[in-house]
Design brief:
alpha/beta, Rossmann fold, 47% helix
C-alpha cells in the first residue's frame, strides 16, 4: 500500500489553485479541504482577522492530521505563501507517515490578478466574490516562493487540464 500524500499549494490569488486542487481530487481521490469553503461554512462571511485565520487553520490542521492518520491523502487547498507554514504542514505529514507534494501555480501575475479581481459569473471557485486590486497586491506581495529544496511541481494555471496535472504528478 502506498503512503498517503499531502498536497500543498503556492500561488497568487486567482492563479488556479482550486481548479488544480479539484483536478487532483478527481485523479487521485484524495480528500479536498478547501479553506475558502470551510471558512464560509464555519465562520460565515469572512473578516480575515488574525483570530479568524488562527481558528480556521487550527481546525484545518487538525482535520489534515486526522485524515492522514487514517491513511487518507489530503489536498489542502489554500495558499501556503510562507515557507514556515509549508514546513509546519510537512511536519504534520511526516508525523503521520505521509509524503508532501508542493504544487506551485506559476500563472502570470497579470492573468491571476484579472481572475481574482474581475467578475466571473460562471466561476464557482470565488465563493467570497472578487477581491480588490489592493487586496490582491497585499496578498501577493510577500509570497515566499518555493526553492529547489522543496522540489515543488510547477504548473501554469493557464489552460491546465487533467492530463497535464496527471503527467506532472507522475500518475
Amino acid at each position: 500500500m502506498s503512503k498517503p500524500k499531502l498536497y500543498l499549494f503556492v500561488g497568487y490569488p486567482g492563479a488556479g489553485k482550486t481548479t488544480v486542487a479539484r483536478i487532483v481530487h478527481e485523479v487521485t481521490g484524495a480528500t479536498h479541504l478547501w479553506a475558502d469553503k470551510i471558512r464560509r461554512e464555519r465562520l460565515g462571511p469572512p473578516n480575515y482577522t488574525h483570530e479568524e485565520n488562527m481558528q480556521l487553520y487550527s481546525h484545518l490542521n487538525e482535520m489534515t492530521a486526522e485524515l492522514l492518520r487514517a491513511g487518507n491523502s489530503v489536498i489542502f487547498d489554500t495558499n501556503f505563501k510562507y515557507r514556515k507554514d509549508r514546513d509546519h504542514l510537512r511536519q504534520i505529514a511526516a508525523d503521520h507517515n505521509a509524503d508532501t507534494v508542493v504544487i506551485w501555480l506559476v500563472t502570470p501575475k497579470d492573468e491571476a490578478r484579472h481572475r481574482a479581481t474581475e467578475p466571473h459569473h460562471q466561476d464557482d471557485n470565488r465563493i467570497h466574490g472578487e477581491m480588490s486590486t489592493e487586496d490582491f497586491e497585499r496578498l501577493s506581495s510577500d509570497t515566499e516562493w518555493p526553492d529547489e529544496g522543496e522540489q515543488a511541481i510547477q504548473i501554469n494555471g493557464v489552460g491546465v487540464t487533467p492530463e497535464i496535472v496527471k503527467q506532472l504528478l507522475g500518475l
